[in-house]
Amino acid sequence: MAATGFEKSLVETHQQDGVMTVTICRPEMRNAVNPATARALYAAFLQFEADETAQVAVLTGEGGYFCSGFDLKAAGAGGSDDWLAELEIEAHWRDPVVDPRPGPMGPSRLMLSKPVIAAIEGPAVAGGMELAAWCDMRVMAEDAFAGVYCRRWGVPLIDGGTLRLPRILGQGRANDLILTGRTLPAEEAHRIGFADRLSPSGEALELAQALAQDLTRFPQACMRADHLSARMPSQDLAEALRREWRSASAFLAEGRAGAQRFAKGLGRSGDFSKI
């Protein structure tokens, strides 16, 4: 893939036949998103929305990892403080369509007119699960997994997870995942509706791109009109995101200390025994 204006180590975009693939490129961190990566992802999806030749996007991660969430090492060291301060939502914000804003993970406050498909290999956890939920469809490899792993660290869901997961899964199943932070394997994710397609290991991107290519064959104005009508009104989304953002204060109360424990090596790979 060729970089298109973004630092190669963070985000790359590649476009072919109307499908733009956006790749998180921090495999050494399991594609955890730091502030620079969040900015690059946000810019990439604004570019996708503005590009008339790009009809469908695929979001994926490099190296067999979708996204392990926000970079807790950076958060624990205070490296995300300036970024979080930039994300405050004013009380008058009403419409993410006409007045787009970045979220902590980058594009999570955007409401695009064109569909985005997540291609998930490996972990889609914490903020990575929120990014996957932000996408309109999800293709998961059979050995991939999701989960609200940030539950261990006192880091709240502030990228739309508290509103999108109940809409995708129903309130009861969302409660189970949000409250317990347990692992959601791909097979169960497909059974309960989080994953729309399953693929063999290593083939999620290929299947997602093929699905995206299928969508480009349809009359686009009609598809986008139905896509918009099938989602919550943008004003309701803005109100829900403003309400969720109030939980960001919990990061200062609990999440900073949790992020520092993570940085010391506790609770890795979904281990809840020592947190």
Present the secondary structure layout.
Layout: E1 11-16, E2 19-24, H1 35-50, E3 56-61, H2 72-76, H3 81-86, E4 116-120, E5 123-125, H4 127-134, E6 137-141, E7 145-147, H5 161-169, H6 171-180, E8 183-185, H7 186-192, E9 197-199, H8 204-215, H9 220-229, H10 234-245, H11 249-263
Parallel strand pairs: 2-3, 3-4, 4-6, 5-7, 6-9
Antiparallel strand pairs: 1-2, 7-8
Helix pairs in contact: 4-5, 5-6
- According to CATH, the homologous superfamily is 2-enoyl-CoA Hydratase, Chain A, domain 1
Termini separation comes to 38 Å
- What is the count of structural domains? 1
Q: Which sheet architecture does the biggest sheet show?
A: 6 strands, mixed
Mean pLDDT: 91
Helix content: 40-55%
The Cα radius of gyration reads 17 Å
Shape: globular
Classified by CATH, the class is Alpha Beta
Low-pLDDT runs of 5+ residues are: 1-7
CATH names the topology as: 2-enoyl-CoA Hydratase, Chain A, domain 1
**Structural class determined from secondary elements:** alpha/beta
Task: Strand order, main sheet: write it out.
Answer: 1-2-3-4-6-9
How big a fraction of the residues is strand?
Answer: 5-15%
Number of strands: 9
Run of helices and strands? EEHEHHEEHEEHHEHEHHHH
Q: Which architecture per CATH?
A: Alpha-Beta Complex
Q: Count of helices?
A: 11
Describe what this molecule looks like in 3D.
The chain is of the alpha/beta class and 275 residues long. The chain has one domain: 2-enoyl-CoA Hydratase, Chain A, domain 1 (Alpha-Beta Complex), CATH 3.90.226. Helices cover 40% and strands 15% of the residues. The chain contains 11 helices and 9 strands. It has helices spanning 35-50, 72-76, 81-86, 127-134, 161-169, 171-180, 186-192, 204-215, 220-229, 234-245, 249-263; strands at 11-16, 19-24, 56-61, 116-120, 123-125, 137-141, 145-147, 183-185, 197-199. Strands 1-2-3-4-6-9 form a 6-stranded mixed sheet, with helices on both faces. Helix 5 (161-169) crosses helix 6 (171-180). The longest helix has 16 residues, at 35-50. Mean pLDDT is 91; it is low at 1-7.
